[in-house]
Amino acid sequence: MNIRELARLSGVSTATVSRALNGRGEVSEVTRRRISELAREMGYAPNEPARTLVRRRSDTIGLVWDSGYERRGLHHPFLQGLLSGVRAALQDAGYHLMLLTTAGDKDDDDTYLQAVRRHNLEAVVVMGVQSDDRAVRALADSPVVCVGIDLALSGPHTARVTSDNEAGAAAAVRHLFELGHRRLATITGPVHMPPAADRLKGFLTACAELGVPVPDSHVREGDFFLAGGQQAMAELLALPEPPTAVFAAGDQMAIGALHAAAQAGRAVPADVAVVGFDDIDAASLVRPALTTVAQDERALGAAAVAALRRMLERRHEGDGTADGSGAADPGTHVVSTRLVVRESSAPR
């Protein structure tokens, strides 16, 4: 079933069929409905490559996600949930999703950019990678609309979406302070990553505002995974004056910290309180159930898609740069976090 056969069966021209199926205003609602119903009955599907050539739009958004963790056999549940949030938001907005990879050639600066041009993609969402990756930098420097999630992209047509990491970390500190804890420590993520740096800043700023000193030995760098949190917690508990409460900048590290406390014979929360960040599914299932700062994965995905749609609308309307390519949506779009109190934190 092709468009010419569908036009013959509908008794109209191929141009009318095309306008009806593409939602153009030149077709009456009665005709549009009749053609759509016939197309559905006959199993007609438009030729997407041909539509892309005619419309110069593909309704497809690229996703760059190549953290390298998977090659090391590591899987982060928050990133998986975030991917689902992005996919759901794109689906609601009528977009398709295409995963872009480097095809193993990380030295090719244009690997992502070539894929965008080859498939005529509308825009790209970038997450789970490092902003100094050469292929990511080439993409951000191009005319392609790019939205980074928890990633500070720098380019003419870029925007950033992130959780309020500083406020979330500060809320965790205030919660522990109100419970009577004064010897606080933190297990950070890799500090070169913006979320980890923001959470560390929120922790230190809140401690300073509350008059809680934080010795250097109470700041341990982790890796956002179980083993890193377990090792960092073991080091903290081995100090001459160990902390009475620990804020881990990720739930997996917090769960690793729970294991380290058990191995050291310390009860949580009686001997040491633990607070995480993310609110992954496992946070409510471990024992004691983990107090954590929850991120809204669906809201992050929706904010990313809203940001790229705003930039694309400006481009399609010809509003923006002198060449009509459209202007970037400036600034960072911040999604709120919330503290979820469970069993792993209790009064000192």
Describe the structure.
Pfam families: LacI, Peripla_BP_3. Keywords: DNA-binding, Transcription, Transcription regulation. It comes from Wenjunlia tyrosinilytica. The protein has 348 residues and is of the alpha/beta class. It has 3 domains: 3-46, lambda repressor-like DNA-binding domains (434 Repressor (Amino-terminal Domain), Orthogonal Bundle); 60-163 and 298-335, Rossmann fold (3-Layer(aba) Sandwich); 165-295, 3-Layer(aba) Sandwich (Rossmann fold), CATH 3.40.50.2300. Helix content is 42%, strand content 16%. It contains 12 helices and 12 strands. The protein has helices spanning 3-10, 14-21, 29-42, 48-55, 77-92, 111-119, 134-140, 165-178, 194-210, 226-237, 251-263, 297-316, and strands at residues 60-64, 96-100, 123-127, 146-149, 158-163, 184-188, 219-221, 245-248, 273-278, 291-294, 332-335, 338-340. The strands form 2 sheets. Strands 2-1-3-4-5-11 form a 6-stranded parallel beta sheet, with helices on both faces. Strand 1, helix 5 (77-92) and strand 2 (96-100) form a beta-alpha-beta unit. The longest helix has 20 residues, at 297-316. The protein is elongated.
List key phrases describing it:
six-stranded mixed beta sheet, 3 domains, 434 Repressor (Amino-terminal Domain), 12 helices, 42% helix, 12 strands, single chain, 348 residues, alpha/beta, Rossmann fold, six-stranded parallel beta sheet
- CATH arch. level architecture of the largest domain: 3-Layer(aba) Sandwich
CATH H level, superfamily name of the largest domain: Response regulator
Question: Could you give the order of the helices and strands?
Answer: HHHHEHEHEHEEHEHEHEHEEHEE
Mean pLDDT reading: 86
- As a percent range, the share of strand residues is 15-25%
Which ranges are low-confidence, i.e. pLDDT below 50, for 5 or more consecutive residues?
Answer: 320-329
Number of domains: 3
**Can you tell me the CATH class of the largest domain?**
Alpha Beta
Outline type: elongated
